[in-house]
Write a structure and sequence with these properties.
single chain, nine-stranded mixed beta sheet, five-stranded antiparallel beta sheet
Length: 284
C-alpha cells in the first residue's frame, strides 16, 4: 500500500495529495501543528485531548480555525492504520495552515489546510548531550509559547548543535535565563531543587512537561517553576528533557561536560513513573 495522509477530510496516497503553492503555511509559515505518539499495539495517540487543546490555543492566537476534536482523532487513527504502524511506535503530526493566500503576510479568504501524517518514530536514545546555542528565545515575541510552523530558528539551532556532536540545542531567553530546547522542555536539579523554566520565560507549554509536573506531585517530588540563569544548567547535578518523542530523557553532557549524575535519582524516578503512565493505556 502507498504511504497515506489525511488531507482536508480525505485519506489519500501521498502522491495524490495536493497543497497549493500559494498556501500561507508554505509562503510565510502561517500555521500551527502538534506532534503525537501512538504506542505499539494501538493506533490512538497518547494524550490526544491535551494535544488538541494546545493546537486549539495556538490556532486561536494565529487566527486559524481547526476541525473538531473527534474528526482529528479519527484522522490520526486512520493514518496510523493505513500506514501499517500499529505494531510499532508511530509519530503523528497534525498541521493546520492558513490555506491559499496572497504572496505576502496578509491572510487570504480560503479555508485552512489541514494535514495529518504519520511515520515511524525516531529512536532518540537513552540519554542526550545538549549544547547551549548562541541564539535566544524572545519571550516577548508574538509567537512566544505557541507551537507554530515558523520553525526556522529551531532548524538553525539544532543544526548548530549537531555539528558540535550534541543531540539537542538549548536556548536562553533575552534575559539570559534558561528557556527550552528546539523541541523539548528542560528540568534541572540545581542547589538541591528540581526546577523548570516558567512559561512567562518564553518556553512552550509542553504536554509532557505538564504531565511530569503532575507526576512530581504523585511521587512526592517538589518541583518549582522558576527563572534561573542559563549558567545554572552547567552547575546542575542532574537534568533531563521532556517531550512527546523523548518522554523523560536524561541529559548526559552539557557543552561537552558530563553531569555528575546520569541519570540522577529524580530523573530515574520520574522516567519510571512516566512509563507507568504510558502503560496505563489511558488518555491522561
Amino acid at each position: 500500500m502507498a504511504d497515506m495522509v489525511w488531507l482536508n477530510g480525505k485519506l489519500q496516497p501521498i502522491a495524490e495529495a495536493e497543497i497549493s503553492p500559494f498556501d500561507h503555511g508554505i509562503t510565510v509559515g502561517n500555521g500551527v501543528f502538534e506532534t503525537m505518539i501512538a504506542y505499539a499495539g494501538g493506533p490512538v495517540p497518547f494524550a490526544f485531548t491535551r494535544h488538541y487543546q494546545r493546537l486549539e490555543r495556538s490556532a486561536g492566537a494565529m487566527g486559524l480555525a481547526i476541525r473538531p476534536l473527534e474528526e482529528l482523532l479519527q484522522a490520526s487513527i486512520a493514518v496510523v492504520e493505513a500506514n501499517e504502524l500499529v505494531a510499532q511506535l508511530a509519530r503523528i503530526r497534525i498541521t493546520v495552515t492558513g490555506g491559499p493566500a496572497p504572496l505576502g503576510s496578509e491572510r487570504g479568504d480560503s479555508p485552512e489546510t489541514t494535514l495529518v501524517a504519520s511515520a515511524a518514530a525516531p529512536d532518540l536514545g537513552e540519554a542526550v548531550d545538549v549544547l547551549v546555542v548562541p541564539y535566544t528565545r524572545n519571550e516577548h515575541g508574538a509567537l512566544s509559547g505557541l507551537k507554530t510552523t515558523s520553525y526556522g530558528e529551531n532548524v538553525v539551532a539544532l543544526s548548530y548543535a549537531k555539528k558540535r556532536a550534541s543531540g539537542e540545542a538549548i536556548f536562553a531567553n533575552t534575559k539570559g535565563e534558561l528557556c527550552e530546547g528546539t523541541g523539548s522542555n528542560i528540568f534541572i536539579v540545581f542547589e538541591g531543587e528540581l526546577l523548570t523554566p516558567p512559561l512567562e520565560g518564553g518556553c512552550l507549554a509542553g504536554v509532557t512537561r505538564a504531565l511530569v509536573m503532575e507526576l512530581c506531585a504523585q511521587e512526592g517530588i517538589a518541583v518549582t517553576q522558576r527563572a534561573v540563569p542559563v549558567s545554572a544548567l552547567h552547575q546542575a547535578t542532574e537534568a533531563f528533557l521532556t517531550g512527546t518523542t523523548r518522554e523523560v530523557q536524561p541529559i548526559h553532557k552539557v557543552d561537552g561536560v558530563v553531569l555528575s549524575e546520569v541519570p540522577g535519582e529524580m530523573t530515574a524516578k520520574l522516567r519510571a513513573a512516566f512509563r507507568n503512565l504510558v502503560d496505563g493505556k489511558v488518555d491522561p
